[in-house]
Amino acid sequence: MRKITASLFISLDGVVEAPDQWHFPYFNDEMGAAVDASFATADTLLLGRKTYDSFAGAWPDREAEGGEDAGFAKKLGDARKIVASRQDLTFTWRNSELLKGELADAVTALKREPGGDIALSGSVSVVRQLLAHGLLDELHLLVHPIAVRKGMRLFDEADTTVPLRLLSSATFRTGVLHLVYALAEPTGEATYDDAKVHLPRDDQ
């Protein structure tokens, strides 16, 4: 079954909205390598409508201009791009199509198709839904050492928790943390009495 990986730029206080307004001072070769690696094994991009519009408004022109990021732009253009939207859309960027059906069912079917990995970039509403349905295999968070203090956060308020298991971590020279998580089993219930046995004792 194909693996789905989501990558997000996120601030220390959990903001994922408008990273173009706070992210770029922290972009260096380490982050460039991490971003490139997130697409390395993927031949399909799953995108929300807003993220797709942002990508389609920038990357085709960058590919045509032939600048230093034209190679990455071509990689995005060549990939199969599936857009999660309830609206009928007309696409001008090559290899783009609409995700058909309810998201959870359609993504489950997509994971069962032959092919490489499936990558998400941004598309917070899609990431939330995939987490809720247990369909996201890896969540890559590039945590920036800045409190943005306004904007949409990755996790909205709800009555349920989202347990995660840390797969790997790395610290960039800029102070950015690259954290990779997978979904975990529910943690179960515990109280202070359960936790206090792990506190340091005076006789130790």
N-to-C order of helices and strands: EHEHHHEEHEHEEEH
**Helical residue percent band:** 25-40%
Domains (count): 1
Detail the poorly predicted runs: none
Rg calc: 19 Å
Class based on secondary structure composition and strand pairing: alpha/beta
CATH architecture: 3-Layer(aba) Sandwich
Q: What does the largest sheet look like?
A: 8 strands, mixed
- What's the CATH C level? Alpha Beta
Q: Termini separation (Å)?
A: 49 Å
Q: Treating each run of at least 4 consecutive H or I residues as one helix, how many helices?
A: 7
Quick overview:
This protein is an alpha/beta fold and 204 residues long. Helices cover 29% and strands 25% of the residues.
Can you lay out the helices and strands and say which pair or pack?
Blueprint (H helix, E strand, L loop, with lengths): L3 E8 L17 H12 L1 E7 H8 L2 H7 L4 H9 L1 E5 L11 E3 L4 H10 L4 E5 L2 H9 L5 E7 L19 E8 L5 E7 L8 H4 L9
Parallel strand pairs: 1-5, 1-6, 2-3, 2-5, 3-4
Antiparallel strand pairs: 6-8, 7-8
Helix pairs in contact: 3-4
Mind explaining what this structure looks like?
The radius of gyration is 19 Å and the shape is globular. The protein has an eight-stranded mixed β-sheet. By secondary structure, it is of the alpha/beta class. It has a single domain (4-176), classed as Dihydrofolate Reductase, subunit A (3-Layer(aba) Sandwich). Helix 3 (59-65) crosses helix 4 (70-78). The chain contains seven helices and eight strands; from the N terminus they run βαβαααββαβαβββα. The mean pLDDT is 93. This is Dihydrofolate reductase. Residues 2-177 form the Bacterial bifunctional deaminase-reductase C-terminal domain. InterPro entries: DHFR-like_dom_sf (IPR024072), RibDG_C (IPR002734), Riboflavin_Biosynth_HTPR (IPR050765).
